[in-house]
Amino acid sequence: MSTVSTVTAPAPALRIGNLDLSVPVVLAPMAGITNTAFRRLCREYGAGLYVSEMITSRALIERTPESMRLIRHHESETPRSIQLYGVDPKTVAEAVTMLVAEDRADHIDLNFGCPVPKVTRKGGGAALPWKLGLFRDIVERAARAAGSIPLTVKMRTGIDADHLTYLEAGRAAEGAGAASIALHARTAAEFYSGTADWATIAKLKDAITSVPVLGNGDIWSAQDALRMVEQTGCDGVVVGRGCLGRPWLFGDLAAAFQGAELKAEPTLGEVAQAFRRHAELLVEFFDDEVRACRDIRKHVAWYFKGYAVGGELRAALAMASSLQEIDDLLGQLDAAQPYPGDAAEGQRGRAGTPKTPSLPERWLDSRELQEAHRAELTEAELSTSGG
């Protein structure tokens, strides 16, 4: 891939517990995206910490087939990172204990940032830090169960602008033994819309003194990552939607944080090669070629964003059911077509519009967990992994 020089910056190392990362970059867990195949592909381009899809604690301790499949790592994946979701301190601790006892992870992250209605309406995800005592109990028991394995937290700024939780929750997580805290600088109400409020990351960094603070939100390029670190003082960045269809972004990020600042400008042929590699890794992950080809379909628009690829060919790629079909279709592309510049950059993935979060009835009446809400939390524990 061709490269262009950009602005230079220092290369801060990131230490999370006993993990030393050569670059301060974390792949954000994304449901249906950050499986072993995508993580392996991203690793081929750059360095960092690559986190699994969200896995439900109860489903894990019940050893459901899907959960057991999602926690598998390829032998090339080091360190192994798993994100757990749960609302019951005992269940989360049991899931962490299982991962540690069976040597399945080198890093465990807890999800308190999911804004999806099916999660928040039961009191989970981004809704849970409002119940500060419950939040603290989950983190404390999980950290204790993790032992020497770093246990980290990812959260949002709050439920909405009137119910911000990130400062209190951040301090509680720090005191409960979290090895780092990542903040997506949006509320649950904002979902993925608008512009992330990086000022909240700076405020959290000022409030947390003993563990790293990582920033998340609107990192579409390596330059965005450098700006976030400069503006907020955060210790590292968490990248989500910005890498969809662009696994080479991790190469850009590694170069930027190491001072080289090289930017990938792939030809259409190079994009096609990455797409084909992704599909191949999905076949290995699912052990099912048809299922893998179905899964890669959602990535078509992301990979070919900005490139002159006709609608019929895009549609055909989104219907392919074998690697041979994909090869035949990719063979029709103009491999020499150059990088299209800004048309291939910028936002990708879901954005949506602000919305009133779905919450259990009277959830906001108190910061303490009420008996009436325990049933909702029990139901939340039944959510399936990866959702």
Question: Can you walk me through this structure?
Answer:
52% of the residues are buried. The chain has 387 residues and is an alpha/beta fold. Residues 2-12 have low confidence and may be disordered. Helix content is 37%, strand content 13%. The strands form two sheets. Strands 3-4-5-6-7-8-9-10 form an eight-stranded parallel β-barrel, surrounded by seven helices. The chain has a two-stranded antiparallel ribbon with strand order 1-2. The longest helix has 19 residues, at 268-286. Strand 7 (151-158), helix 7 (166-176) and strand 8 form a beta-alpha-beta unit.
Question: Care to give the gist of this entry?
Answer:
The protein is α/β, with parallel strands linked by helices and 387 residues long. It has helices spanning 36-43, 57-61, 65-70, 89-101, 117-120, 132-146, 166-176, 198-207, 222-232, 249-257, 268-286, 289-296, 300-303, 311-317, 323-330, 374-380, and strands at residues 14-16, 19-21, 25-27, 49-56, 81-85, 107-112, 151-158, 181-187, 213-216, 236-239.
Multimeric state = single chain
User: Termini, distance in Å?
Assistant: 35 Å
Q: Which regions contain 5 or more consecutive residues with pLDDT less than 50? A: 2-12
Tell me the overall shape: globular
Query: Which CATH architecture of the largest domain is right?
Result: Alpha-Beta Barrel
Provide the gyration radius in Å. 20 Å
Physical arrangement of strands within the biggest beta sheet: 3-4-5-6-7-8-9-10
Mean pLDDT: 93
Strand content: 5-15%
Q: Total strand count, please?
A: 10
Task: Classify the secondary structure makeup into a structural class.
Answer: alpha/beta
Q: Characterize the largest beta sheet: strand count, sense, and whether it forms a barrel.
A: 8 strands, parallel, barrel
Order of helices and strands: EEEHEHHEHEHHEHEHEHEHHHHHHH
CATH H level of the largest domain: which superfamily?
Answer: Aldolase class I
How many helices? The count is 16
- Counting structural domains, the number is 2
Give the helix level as a range of percent.
25-40%
The CATH class assignment of the largest domain is Alpha Beta
CATH topology-level name of the largest domain: TIM Barrel
